[in-house]
Specification:
The structure is a single chain. It contains five helices and no strands. The protein is mostly helical. The longest helix is centred in the last third of the chain and has 19 residues, at about 85-100.
């Protein structure tokens, strides 16, 4: 539970200080990883390969944990939510995925 609360605090801080992260989960993940690596190793200039292959050792949370935490925070604090354009795109994505998941014939 402690680790999840830490992820929640990190994601909340990023959403507050970087409004562009509210619309883009990859950008949000970048900021969270950058902050984790800076905090644990004092270095923010690592290659993509170094971060992706060593994220656990660098103290970075998993992508899904960050995404789910973002969803939870935005549900509680709508002022930290995404733009209306992104909200519409995400809703369309949910509909498309639901249709895909329910397609038993695989078309």
């Amino acid at each position: 539970m402690y680790k999840l609360k830490t992820v929640e605090n990190m994601v909340l801080n990023v959403l507050i200080s970087n409004p562009d992260a509210r619309d883009d989960d990859m950008r949000l993940y970048y900021y969270v990883c950058r902050d984790c690596i800076s905090e644990t190793h004092g270095n923010t200039h690592l290659s993509f390969e170094e971060v992706m292959t060593n994220y656990k050792e660098l103290g970075c949370p998993g992508f899904e944990s960050v995404r789910r935490t973002r969803q939870k925070i935005q549900a509680i604090l709508p002022e930290l939510g995404c733009s209306p354009t992104v909200r519409r795109r995400r809703n369309k994505g949910v509909i498309a995925y639901t249709n895909y998941a329910l397609d038993k014939e695989g078309n």
